[in-house]
Amino acid sequence: xxxxxxxxxxxxxxxxxxxxxxxxxxxxxxxxxxxxxxxxxxxxxxxxxxxxxxxxxxxxxxxxxxxxxxxxxxxxxxxxxxxxxxxxxxxxxxxxxxxxxxxxxxxxxxxxxxxxxxxxxxxxxxxxxxxxxxxxxxxxxxxxxxxxxxxxxxxxxxxxxxxxxxxxxxxxxxxxxxxxxxxxxxxxxxxxxxxxxxxxxx
Length: 202
Fold this sequence. Notes:
With about 200 residues, this protein is mainly alpha-helical. It is built from 10 helices and no strands.
């Protein structure tokens, strides 16, 4: 059994998905082990750093994959397909959150109250909080592109495959986002964005 497990670990994602479609639970477990931390971190960064919601979304995503593995498009690399599904789930969550927010505002008949983010008051922590706030102001696609590139360390080509767009479009989004963030966060050290990994070559 140990030998079989090791052989599964050596298979690429797409071969594992072929086995999952045939009902192989061990192949599914291998894919889950390979990707669950990265996808959880992606949801966490995209969904207001809400760890509980991120875990719920992770469970929902892999439950759907287990129940309907045939929904995977074998013509696409598994990783880009998986992040495409995760990104669409985030968009649905944004729409739901906006509906709830509007309803709550209407019921209170007042201005939405924003809870302060707990922190230790360090400049780095403050910058991280502000960065998240500014990312939340971006369009869904721009935010997702930023997170995939600089926090998930995905290549331009992979991100383009996730969105089904050209690499030039991805680069344009990144340049636009970095320019906007630099303007809005200019009160911080100019190197702050660099400290957060955004000096990677575009």
